[in-house]
Amino acid sequence: MTEESITGPDRISFTTFLLKILAGLGGGIVGTLILLLIFILSQSILDPFLSNTATESISPIFVFILMIMIFLSSTVGNLLSSFLLSLTEGEKYKRRASAIYQTFILSIIIFILMVPVYFITATLNVSLTAYAIALHIIISAQLTAIILEVISNYRHALVGIYGVTFSILLSAGVMLGLASAIQNTAILLFAALPVVWGSIAVVQSITIMIYGWIARVYDKDFLSTQTVYGDDYGKEVESEEEAAPKAKDEAGADFLRNN
User: Using 50, 70 and 90 to split pLDDT, how confident is the model at 1?
Assistant: First the structure.
């Protein structure tokens, strides 16, 4: 454990900060390119969405293709962004494989839960589907970033959660502003991934830098998972390993008999 990690998260250099921005934007852009490719291949079916004029019931085929587009693009964008972000701080994000596995599983769960939302919004008004898309992308990106922080950076996972939350609020405001300014909610379809992941890279890094400075100035790691408050005093966990149950030291025969 480095000296900085005792009183806050490790410092982020300017070079690492720039690499994080490129990593977040890179994953988001690749996801958008996949979205664009699928859209081009199925443009005739998805025209009502872009024209933003359809008011009658939407074909189930339209909803199905739209869901597949969002699932594939968001999953690839999330996996790639989290992987690239983990490479910018290899010493910090050592368990990237576990984070990627968990992200993929979560992406499938979110997709299943969003299926009725897509069908309901498409039936009511196709414009509402754009907001369902934004919701899907924002939730999946937020949870992906949180998974990366919790699995790979247990001690300062709370700092990452704060940073991700601030970035999601910012990206949601940016996307709503774009949709309002352009008067076309379909912009959310292509802008969401780069905006969300770019925001996560920038805002989360700034949050970590500001918090790290505060922790070092006051010489107290306020957001460490090992820092306790209120009635929890005296229940400190000294290390991650102590929080995990340990197997009994048994002889071979006893082990086979009990297991």
Answer: very low
Alpha-carbon distance of 11 to 6, in angstroms, equals 12
Per-residue pLDDT reduced to its tens digit, 33-71: 998 888 787 776 666 555 554 445 566 777 888 888 899
Q: Are 97 and 148 in contact (CB under 8 A)?
A: no
Question: Which residues span the domain enclosing 142?
Answer: 11-218
Q: Is residue 259 part of a domain?
A: no
Which token pair is 102? 């968990």
Residue 70 lies in a domain: yes
Residue 234 inside a domain? The answer is: no
Chain mean position to CA 217: 30
Residue with tokens 């709503």: 176
Structural domain count, the chain: 1
Tokens of 49: 């969405």
Helix 14-41 × helix 60-88 angle, to 10°: 160
- Domain annotation covers residue 258: no
User: Residue 68: which of 20, 21, 115 has the closest Cα?
Assistant: 115
